[in-house]
Amino acid sequence: MFVAAESTLEGFASRLACPRINAGERFPEIETVVSHVPHEGGDDGEMGRNHALSGVIRNRVRGLSDECSELLDCQSSLAELPTEFIVGHGRSYYHFVAHDTSIKRHSALYNVNELLFGVSDTSNNVFCFWMCFVPVILLVTIRYSPSFMKIISANLNGIRSATTKGFFDWMKTTDADVVCIQELKAQAADLTDEMRNPDGYRGFFHYAEKKGYSGVGIYSRREPDRIVEGIGHAGFDAEGRFIRADFGDLSVVSVYVPSGSSSPERQEAKFEFLDEFLPVMDALRAEGREFVVCGDWNIAHKEIDLKNWKGNLKNSGFLPEERAWLDKLYASGWVDVYRSLYPDAGDEGYSWWSNRGQAYAKNVGWRIDLHVATAGIASTAKESSVFKGQKFSDHAPLSVDYDCGYFV
């Protein structure tokens, strides 16, 4: 995502005598700079279709679909209503028309001219292109960063249920490079084509042997160099808890740590998994590659990571032994990416809510869905958010934008 300095756009607008629409307008939780570049059109010389080139529309807490609807909802506050927008997001541009929520995705590097010319008759726009569009293209070229990589982790609590609740429709709007999912609760024969390979993605899965139980997966825009299933423990591998995808020098993992809340026996199984998994994490880090291990870790680390910490000191997910295990993991060099970005974030980081009572409505939650990464790639993380605009399961998706070049 690129960021255009407002003063720079103002300078262009001033020199080109192009009027602007509330360039400094700030919509709630969105940073936006909009340049209004008109051109002449029609036989009678009247002003024709207006184009708005956005310097940046960045929504820190909602997905792209919400960004679009938010901007459209705010059009009444503009002095003149622009007809079309070009929005920079991730490594792509999105073109959409006022009062029409359809979005066309374009490659930022290859289709800029097509995108700019495609919104009008180019035969009437040669002068305007050279006088108005070229400076903006130069601005975009200079300011645009093609190196951002977005990774999302989402516990679906059943892929079939999440599908009916709109998960894959939402996923298409995120422009994510990799999406890690947990709790498939399905086998290969249960998946539809959309679940197996959503539009623009390849899916890879580690299924549980038991039907309707556990299971993890990874969706990727890029074909992985290698896929690894399991941690080498027959019992836990039969539950489908670990899948790894290698992309060059980067590996992305989707992991589902067992829950121990259902019984003392399951808590003992959870402790056994943690004992087995820590050496696995040590071995991954020793490979010298960059790793992002995404998933439902089923442990809240600190008091800040759950609402009612005092009442959960003796409950699975916040037991002293579990929290000490995370202490040891982080002391070995692994990084909790979200916490590194937002050291003081509290309830805005919650990603799971009990189905009991009004936990979700009152945001009585836990932060147990994590990106745990090696120090190198963790240091490139620029932004993270938990998407709560739509409920797909008892968990909410956690996304992180990394400023690295692995998926360029």
Your description of this structure?
α9 (264-286) links the parallel β12 (250-256) and β13. The protein folds into 2 domains: 6-143, no CATH class; 148-403, 4-Layer Sandwich (Deoxyribonuclease I, Chain A). It is 27% helix and 26% strand. The protein is α+β, with helices and mostly antiparallel strands and 408 residues long. The strands form 4 sheets. Strands 8-9-7-6-19-18 form a 6-stranded mixed β-sheet. The protein has helices at 6-16, 64-73, 112-118, 126-143, 159-164, 167-174, 193-196, 234-237, 264-286, 320-331, 337-341, 375-378, and strands spanning 30-37, 51-59, 84-89, 92-97, 100-107, 148-155, 178-182, 202-206, 216-220, 226-229, 242-247, 250-256, 290-296, 335-336, 352-353, 365-366, 369-373, 381-386, 398-403. It has 12 helices and 19 strands. α1 (6-16) runs antiparallel to α4. The longest helix is centred in the last third of the chain and has 23 residues, at 264-286. Residues 1-145 have low confidence and may be disordered. The two termini are 13 Å apart.
Mean pLDDT: 75
Quantity of strands, as a count: 19
Which structural class do the helices and strands define?
alpha+beta
Number of domains: 2
Q: What is the radius of gyration computed over CA atoms, rounded to a whole number of angstroms?
A: 23 Å
The CATH topology annotation of the largest domain reads as Deoxyribonuclease I, Chain A
Q: Kindly report how far apart the N and C termini lie.
A: 13 Å
**Structure annotation, total helices:** 12
Low-confidence stretches: 1-145
Backbone shape: globular
Oligomerization category of the chains in this entry: single chain
